[in-house]
Amino acid sequence: MGKFYFHKKNLKYRFGFSLVDLKSKILKGLISFDSSPKIHRAVSLYHLGILNSGFSRRTRIRNRCLKTFFPRSFYSKFLLGRFALRDQARHGFVFGYRKFGW
Fold it and tell me: What does the pLDDT average to over 3-18?
């Protein structure tokens, strides 16, 4: 498996989680709405239980460098890993980043 496979998998998790998060907020709103019939709240609770499998885990989402797809030492401000950020800063593409002895 190449690096791009993990990046593609990560994008799939992000997209799936965003859909699940939206649906779960809607279902939780229906459950907490007191004037709705009990059957609607029960059905919403059932669907919320089904929805919580698969893409619902935010911990599966891994921040990765956009250039090297490296998962560790990720700078979220620049969306790059430390190796790519150092390379970009050395060539002068990252403004406000100082040279620290390379």
Answer: 72
Angle made by CA atoms 53, 55, 61, in degrees to the nearest 5: 135
**pTM of the shown model:** 0.49
Instruction: Name which residue leads in pLDDT, 60 or 91.
Output: 91
58 and 68 within one domain: no
- CA-wise closest residue to 41 among 55, 49, 19: 49
Reading the block at residue 69, the tokens are 């797809």
| Torsion angle of the four alpha carbons 62, 68, 72, 78, in this order, in degrees rounded to the nearest 10 | -80
Query: Do 52 and 71 share a domain, yes or no?
Result: no
- Count of CA atoms in the C-beta half-sphere (13 A) of 76: 2
- Domain limits at 29? 1-62
For residues 44 and 86, state if they share a domain: no
